[in-house]
Amino acid sequence: METGLNLKEIKSRNLSSILYLLNDNANLSRKDIAERLSLTPAAVTKLCSELITLGLIREVGEIDSI
């Protein structure tokens, strides 16, 4: 019997975590996502790139503060 998580399951959970986080907090930077989910910035960049390619999220420029 297998125990633990395999890499596909971890990736799937991380993708889902990013989507849930962005659903509640739409305008987060990749740095903020990484900090909130305890992931590396490189991992978040790779995962977000995949979500962008799938059309599930989109990247926008910086938000101007007034």
Distance between the termini: 57 Å
Mean pLDDT: 90
Order of helices and strands: HHH
- Form type: globular
Query: Can you count the helices?
Result: 3
Radius of gyration: 13 Å
Strand content: under 5%
Instruction: State the low-pLDDT regions, or none.
Output: none
State the helical fraction: 55-70%
Topology, number of strands: 0
**What structural category do the secondary elements indicate?**
mainly alpha
Main β-sheet: number of strands, strand sense, barrel status? none
Looking at this protein, list some descriptive labels.
66 residues, mainly alpha
Task: Explain the layout of strands and helices.
Blueprint: H1 7-24, H2 30-37, H3 41-53
Helix pairs in contact: 1-3, 2-3
In brief:
The protein has helices spanning 7-24, 30-37, 41-53. By secondary structure, the protein is mostly helical. The radius of gyration is 13 Å and the shape is globular.
